[in-house]
Amino acid sequence: MTLRHALASLLLLGAPSTLAAGRIPYGGELRVAHTGPAEPGEPALADSPLEATLLGLLSRPACHLAPDGHLSPALARELSRPAPQVVRLTLPSPAQATALARAWVRLASNEAPSPYRALLFPLRGEGRMLSPTGDTLELPLGFPWPDMERALCHPALAPPRSVPAALGPFSATSANTVDARLAWSQGRPYLDRVRLQATDERGLSRLWSNQEAQVALGVQTDAGTPSGAALYATYLAWSPRRVPPDFRQAVESALDREDLTRLFVRGPAVPMPNLLPPALLPVSPGARPTPPPAPRTGRKVTLVYDAGNEDQRAVAERLQVRLHDRGYAVALERLPRAELRTRWARGEYELMLHSLLLPPVPGPALAVVLDAAGRKDLLGVELPRIGALADAAARDTRARERALALAPSVPMLPLYAQGLALRAVPEVGGLVFDAQGLPMLDGTWLQPAVTGVPGARR
Amino acid sequence: MSRALAAALLLAALPAAAAQTPAPPPAATAPATPALERLAQAVATDVRAMKPEAPVALHLSGGAPELRRAFGTLLASRLASAGLAPVVLEAPSPEAAESLAREQGARALVRLGLSVEAGELRARGDAFGTWVNFWSGRTATRAPSPAAAIAQAVEADAAALALAAVEPPRTPTPAPEEPRPLRLLGAVLARLPSPPAALAAGDLDGDGKDEVAVLTAHAVHVFTAEGNLLTERSLDVLPPGSAPTREPFGALAILSGPPRLAAWSTRFAHGEMLTLENGALRGVSRLEAVPLGPDARGAFVPGQTAFAPEVRLGHGEQRLAVTSRFTTFSAAHSRVLLVHPEGSASFFSQPSVAPVPLSGLGAGSALGDLDGDGTPELLTTSPELQPSPDVLRVFKTDGSETTSHEPLWQGPLPSGRALYVVTANLDGDKRREVVVGLTKPDGTGELFLLRQGAP
C-alpha cells in the first residue's frame, strides 16, 4: 500500500460540508433584527434587556457573570482584592480607567441620577470620589461587601459608548454595523461582523419569515423560544406624601399580576409579587388577596411612565381602568426615560412605573430596588448586615428575607419581571445567555454551511 | 512495559505508599483513591450485601493477568476483613470455577470479568451459593440464595491502566516481525484546573521517560509519566497580548540539548523559554517565534485559534510549503502533519516534498509511533464541530502489507472537546503512548492517557 493509499482512507471518513476540525469557526456576518432603538442611550438609561444587549456589543462593564455564577473579567483585565476592604480593577489602559471612574462618579452624582447608583453604595463615599492611578482603579469599601465584584458586572456600570475609551467585543463601523474587535481583551468574537436592523414588531416578523434575519431579538415567546433570566422588573412607585395612606391596599386589591403578564405585557414575563423577581426570590404560593378599601371617589392622581416602553403604556392604561374602580381618576403622562429618572430623583411624581434591570444577585438587587423606591436611607442599614455574612448563600438568603420583610414599608409595588426572548436560525451556534439574561452575541459563530438542508428554523 | 514498572505503578497507587509521598497540589491531580481500591471496595460491598457464607471463592477473568491478580488481592483483602475467608481460584473459565469452588469447600462463589473500557475500570459478573442439596444426587443444583449480579465501574487511573497494559510473556520462538494489533486502553492521567491550550511531551529531567507538559491560558504544568504534577509556572508576569483568543490557545514544545520548554499562550504578547531546575520551571529567555515543535517555528493568526501559513524548520530558514492557516502541527520521523480549520490536512512525508492533502481530520491530531515499528502512525479525533462522543482514530502513514482503508484502531473518548493530542514515551519502550487534552464541559481540563493494552 502506498502512503497515498494508506492516507486516502481518511478521505472516506469525512463529511466535508459540516466539518470544522473540532474548533469553532471564525468569520461571517450575522444579521440581527431587533425591536430596540437604532442607537441605545447611555448605560444607565439603556437598561432594558434588549438595549443592554445592543449596548454590550460596544461597551462592556468591568466584568461578566456566567449563568453558573462564575465571574470573569470583561472591560477590566483583572479584578482582585489586595485587601478585604479594597477591590482593585486593572484596566487595559489609563484611558479605560478614567472613563470607568468618570461614568461611575456621574452615576453617583446628581448629574444623571439613576437607581443603579445603589450598586456603588458600598464604596467609600458611594463612589463619588474615584480617581484612577494609571490603569488601576482602586475601590475602597465603606463596609464589608463581598458581592461588590458581582455588582460591578451590571451593564449600567459600563462606560457610555460615546466615550472613546469605551470598549466592547465589537466596534461600530457604521450606524448599523459592528465589526469584531481584534484587541478585545477576552478574545475577538468568532464573527467578523454583526449587521443590526432596528424595526418594529411587524418588521421583525417580516424579516424573520423572509429569512432576512438570522437572529431576531425581542420576539414574543412561544414554546421553546430561548429567553434569558427574567430580571427586568417593573414596579409601581408612588410618592407617599401625594397619595392617600390606603393607596397600597387599593392597588393590591385592584391588581391582577397574572392578568398583566398574560394580556398586557409582551415577551417572556412572570408575575412578581415580591420586591425581587422570582428568579431571585421564589414565589411562595398561597398569598391571600388583599381586601379592597372602602371606595371613595374624586381622588385624582397622575401616573407617569416610560414613553419608550410599550409594555409600560399598556400596563399604565390597565392600571388606569382598575384604579378607577377603586375611586381613583388616574391621568397618564408619558415621559422620556431620562426625564422620568430626573423626576424620580427629585421625587416629583405621584405614581410612576419603574422598570429596572436587576443584577442577578439578591443583595445588590435589593439595593437597587430600595433606592428606586426612594428608601436610600435603608441602604446604610440593610447592606452592612447582608455584607457581614461571609457565605454567599447566607447573604443571598438574608437579602431575600429582608426583601420580604421590607416590602410593606417601601412605597413601591412589584408588578412583573421580563426576560429577553430571541429566535435564531440553526446555523447560529454558541448563542447563550449570561447571568443577567442577556444573549452573548460575541460568543456566537456561524456553523459551516450544511448542504441539502434548506433553512429549517427553530 | 516491564513487570517491574507495572508493580511500581501499583505500589505507587496503594494508600500506604501514597501516604509517604507529599500530597500533590489540588489543582491538577488524579482521584485520590486508586481505581483498583475503589473498585474492590465497591464489589466487596456488593458481596457483603448478599450475606454469603464463608469461605467465599473468587474467580476473575478478562484483562491482563497482572490486573486480575492485583484486583484479586485487593478484593480478597476486603472480604477477609469482613470475615468471609476468601479463596482466589485459578480456573480456565467461569463455568469451570463453579465445580472447583465446590471441590475446595467454598460456600459461595464470586465470578467477575475485569475490563478497562471507555476510561472506566469495570467488574461484572455474579455471585451465588455453592451449596448443593443432598437430595439432588449427582446433579449440582443451585440454592435459591445467596445470588446476585454484580456490575461495578470506577474511573480508571494510570496505575490500573499500567496493569491492564502488561504484556503476557513472549514465547521463546522469536517472531519480532509479527505485527501486533493495535489496541489502546484509556484512563485519566491528570486533571487540569482550566482547559489545555497546547500539549507537548519530552524528557525534561533526563530520566529516560517523557514528561507531559500542558499549556493553559495562563500557566504551564508539567506532569510525570504517572500523572503526578511535577511543577507549574504562571505566565501572568508576561505582558498581555494585543490579540488574544476567546478559547485557550497557544504553542508548546520541548526542545533538546539541554532540555527546555518553549511556551506561548495567545493571552500574552510573547512566549517564554523555560528550564526545569530542581523540580521547578524557571524562565530563561523571551520567545519571539511561536514554537510549533522542537524544530519548527511559526506565527499565530491574530485573535484566532489558528497558526498563520508560515512554518520555518530547523535552525535555518527552510520553509514548509503551506498555503493556508492551520490549527494543529505535528512532526515525527521527518514527517509533518498540518490540520487546517475546516478539517482538511496537509501531510508531508518529507519537508521538501509536496504535501498529500487529506480531509476528515480533527484538531486533535498527531504523528507518533504507537507500535514501535519505526514509522509514525497518524492519530486524529473527530472532524465534526461537536461530536458526541469524540472518537480517536489511528491510521498508518506507510504500509507494505495489506491494503486496508480502515483505521488501525478507533475508540471513543470521554466527554469534552478533544482538541489536543500528543504521543509520549512514558515507559521507556519503543511504543509511544497517547495523551489527549480534553476541555471538559465544566470549564476544567483533563489529560486522558491511552496506551497499548494486553491482547
UniProtKB/TrEMBL annotation, chain A:
Recorded hits in InterPro entries, A to Z, give: SBP_5 (IPR039424)
Q: Which domain of life is it from?
A: Bacteria
Q: Name one GO biological process term.
A: peptide transport
- Molecular function via GO: peptide transmembrane transporter activity
Q: What keywords were assigned to this record?
A: Signal, Transport
Q: Where is the signal peptide?
A: 1-20
What the record says about family reads: Belongs to the bacterial solute-binding protein 5 family.
Instruction: State what protein this is by name.
Output: Peptide ABC transporter substrate-binding protein
UniProtKB/TrEMBL annotation, chain B:
Give start-end of the signal peptide: 1-18
Query: Does the keyword Aminoacyl-tRNA synthetase belong to this entry?
Result: no
Q: What domain of life is recorded for the organism? A: Bacteria
Which key words tag this protein in UniProt?
Answer: Signal
InterPro entries for the chain:
FG-GAP (IPR013517), Integrin_alpha_N (IPR028994)
Which Pfam families does UniProt cross-reference here?
FG-GAP
Q: Would the keyword Ion transport turn up in this protein's UniProt record? A: no
Protein name as annotated: FG-GAP repeat protein
The scientific name of the source species is Archangium violaceum Cb vi76
